[in-house]
From TrEMBL:
The modification N6-(pyridoxal phosphate)lysine is found at residue 67. GO terms for biological process: lysine biosynthetic process via diaminopimelate. The keyword Nucleotide-binding does not apply. Its EC number is 4.1.1.20. Pfam families: Orn_Arg_deC_N, Orn_DAP_Arg_deC. Its cofactor is pyridoxal 5'-phosphate. Residues 40-298 form the Orn/DAP/Arg decarboxylase 2 N-terminal domain. The active site is at residue 362. It catalyses: meso-2,6-diaminopimelate + H(+) = L-lysine + CO2. This is Diaminopimelate decarboxylase. NCBIfam families: lysA.
């Protein structure tokens, strides 16, 4: 059985439909590869986080990490759902504002924000800048002084919790290019420096412990560690945070073997842990912010490809090529990410056999799915890869001068083009003679 998410199902023509739209029709209309986003699914995930906080009566901000996927239409959708957004470049700030995102709901991350980007963020009125390092404290302070402005900031700390694995290692995350390290005392040094700066209005502390996290344990360990540090700072400097930002990284389902928790479960676990620690330490309960990226957008996205050539090496391998690959989804090549896929234009009862799905790019590493059981397929068949909504299009590239695919949003039987497919003219648009 194929792994179907959200509104995805097969219609009477045995075509995959998403949001009530026939993907074979969409493929014909927009060309393949094609990213199809199930808007109802995006809304459901966004609400899963937001409404759980609200129902618990906890002041919160759910901030979508735009690096997972962003475009004007996506920011419009976030505005509708009452989410903020996290950006990591001036380009993302520009897009967010063009998409109608209120600057106050934008938070700016990054370990090497340039002077130009910080000036742009301050001028645009970006709500929160998350300071990552000492260089940035000085740079931002100097910019603000020059403009005689104040800026709301948080600072990112690495609490020394690595939630990448189920049995988290308490020192693992220390070796990171991001944030101020707690164990060596750098975080405390940063706090003193920021508090002493009249241009910086410190709102709270941030941490982000990893990605594709499947259990609540890592977050609980991070909450404990964060609250311990915050409490030390309360005692030492009489400083209490208004906001505790626990970052993103909530896991999603890529293949049958992934077993992620629902957004509601993560939110409840975090809130309960913060409450317990606050009671234990007699700390006043802060506003809680989170930054889900993948968990809002990954499962909502499906890529539709057209199958082309096949190569059978007897007793070795059966390769099936599709008309996209590492240009529209570099994750399998980049970090061996696993995906699931299936025939999207018919239901076959023929005997499946193990095949490898590869792209059309000139790299042997251009593999989309290493091993998958598929019935016999032929050129022209449509192949769907599910859960491609995060870090797919946003990492897309023009390798081999292939054009980037189109992106459509589908909802209630309506399709809406939100990013058009590139043209050959686009490919030479930046070339100078
Ligand atoms: C990447 C990132 C996120 C989002 O991570 P997901 O795994 O997509 O949820 C959130 N916060 C920060 C600081 C990040 O770098």
């Amino acid at each position: 059985m194929p792994l179907l998410f959200g509104t995805a199902e097969f219609n009477e023509k045995e075509h995959l439909t998403i949001g009530g739209c026939d993907t074979a029709v969409l493929a014909e209309k927009y060309g393949t590869p094609l990213f199809v986003y199930d808007v109802a699914h995006i809304r459901q995930r966004a609400r899963g986080f937001k409404q759980t906080f609200n129902s618990l009566g906890v002041k919160n901000k759910v901030i979508y990490a735009g690096k997972a996927f962003c475009c004007i239409a996506m920011y419009k959708l976030l505005e509708e759902e009452g989410l903020g957004c996290d950006v990591v470049s001036a380009g993302e700030i520009y897009t967010a504002i063009k998409g109608g995102m209120s600057p106050d709901n934008i938070e700016f991350h990054g370990n090497n924000k340039t002077k130009e980007e910080l000036v742009y963020a301050v001028e645009q009125g970006v709500g929160t800048i998350i300071i990552d390092n000492f260089y940035e404290i000085d740079l931002l302070s100097e910019i603000l002084k020059g403009k005689d402005k104040k800026q709301k900031v948080m600072f990112r700390i690495t609490p020394g919790v690595d939630a990448q694995t189920h049995d988290y290692i308490l020192t693992g995350q220390v070796d990171s290019k991001f944030g101020f390290d707690v164990n060596s005392g750098k975080a405390t040094e940063a706090l003193e420096k920021i508090l002493a700066d009249e241009h910086l209005i410190l709102q709270g502390a941030h941490c982000h412990i990893g990605s594709q996290i499947f259990s609540a344990e890592g977050f609980l360990a991070a909450v404990e560690k964060m609250m311990l540090i915050l409490n030390e700072w309360k005692n030492q400097f009489d400083y209490t945070v208004n906001i505790l930002n626990m970052g993103g990284g909530f896991g999603v389902k890529y293949t049958e073997s992934d077993d992620p928790l629902e957004p509601e479960v993560f939110v409840k676990a975090i809130v309960n842990a913060v409450k317990a620690q606050c009671e234990l330490l007699d700390y006043s309960f802060p506003e809680i912010w989170i930054e889900p990226g993948r968990s809002i957008i990954a499962e909502a996205g499906t890529t539709i490809y057209t199958i082309g050539s096949q190569k059978v090496i007897p007793d070795v391998r059966h390769y099936i090529s599709v008309d996209g690959g590492m240009g529209d989804n570099i994750r399998p090549a980049l970090y061996d990410a696993k995906y699931d896929g299936f025939l999207a234009n018919r239901i076959s009862t023929e005997k499946p056999e193990e095949v490898r799905i590869v792209g059309k790019y000139c790299e042997s590493g251009d593999v989309l799915i290493k091993e998958i059981d598929l019935p016999p397929v032929e050129a022209g068949d449509l192949f769907a890869i599910t859960s491609t909504g995060a870090y797919g299009y946003s990492m897309a590239n023009n390798y081999n001068r292939n054009v980037k695919p189109a992106v459509v949003f589908v909802e209630n039987g309506q399709d809406k083009l939100v990013i058009r497919r590139e043209t050959y003219e686009d490919l030479i648009a930046l070339d100078c003679e």
